[in-house]
Amino acid sequence: MPVKIDQDKCGGISSCPGEGLCIKLCEKGALESDSNHIVLIEENCDDCDLCIQNCPNQAIVKD
């Protein structure tokens, strides 16, 4: 089950204390930045949960 990104909590890379840590940690390239917003590429997500565990804003959750 792919993750879901709460854009209100996330705030984008510019307001992330981890400076887009979720993107850096994703080995499958399932997370990308698009105009300062984090977007999910569902077909690349392998449910490893690294992004959920490491999001400093707790903006990434399972559906």
Note down, in words, how this protein is organized.
With 63 residues, the protein is an alpha+beta fold. The chain has one domain: Alpha-Beta Plaits. Helices cover 22% and strands 22% of the residues. It is built from three helices and four strands. Strand 2 and strand 3 form a beta hairpin. The mean pLDDT is 93.
How do you describe this structure in short?
This is 4Fe-4S binding protein. The chain has a single domain (3-62), classed as Alpha-Beta Plaits (2-Layer Sandwich).
Q: How far from one another are the termini? A: 7 Å
Lateral strand order in the biggest sheet: 1-4
CATH topology: the name is Alpha-Beta Plaits
What is the correct CATH architecture?
2-Layer Sandwich
Q: Which consecutive residue ranges, at least 5 long each, have pLDDT under 50? A: none
| Beta-strand segment tally | 4
Figure out the total of helices: 3
The SSE order reads EHHEEHE
How would you sum up the major sheet?
2 strands, antiparallel
Structural class: alpha+beta
Q: Report mean pLDDT, rounded to a whole number.
A: 93
Per the principal axes of the C-alpha atoms, what is the gross shape?
globular
Number of separate structural domains: 1
Share of residues in helices: 10-25%
Amount of beta strand: 15-25%
